[in-house]
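Figure caption, in words: inputs first, then the predicted bound structure.
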Amino acid sequence: MRSAAVFVFVVAFLSSACNRSENQAEAATGGNAKVGRHLIYSYGCGSCHAIPGVAEAKGTLGPPLQGFAYRTYIAGSLQNTPENLFRWITKPQEVVAGSAMPDLGVSDRQARDIAAYLYTLQ
Ligand code: HEC
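Bound structure (heme C present):
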């Protein structure tokens, strides 16, 4: 009986911790993290990046995006803020000309959703 109560408590705690990081990421970006995860999959970001929670995202050409919420710089050149992340995702070639990350045609709206997902990665 008591162990069942502990189990329920642990599950409730874990799921609220999980939602909290998603809520914070969505508040900071104005995007939808679940939609973002889907977009990351459809744009094939995972062919170059290892991204937790995204199917088949095991690429090694670009840096792994695990723990992205805590990274200080984006591509070693921009402070890691939501606005800078939108800019990087939509126009990496404008930020670092000749970067191995191509402009993929991501819209501003989609960049918000993608950023929301990346900021859930702690
Ligand atoms: C063809 C390979 C390739 C694809 C596809 C690609 N990237 Fe990248 N990405 C890179 C490389 C290489 C870097 C490192 C650039 C640098 O440091 O100059 C990078 C850097 C990044 C960074 C900064 C990471 C850090 O720690 O500095 C983010 C965020 C990122 N990419 C997100 C994405 C997203 C989102 C997509 C899909 C919309 C995507 N990338 C698609 C190659 C790619």
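The two ends are 34 Å apart (CA to CA).
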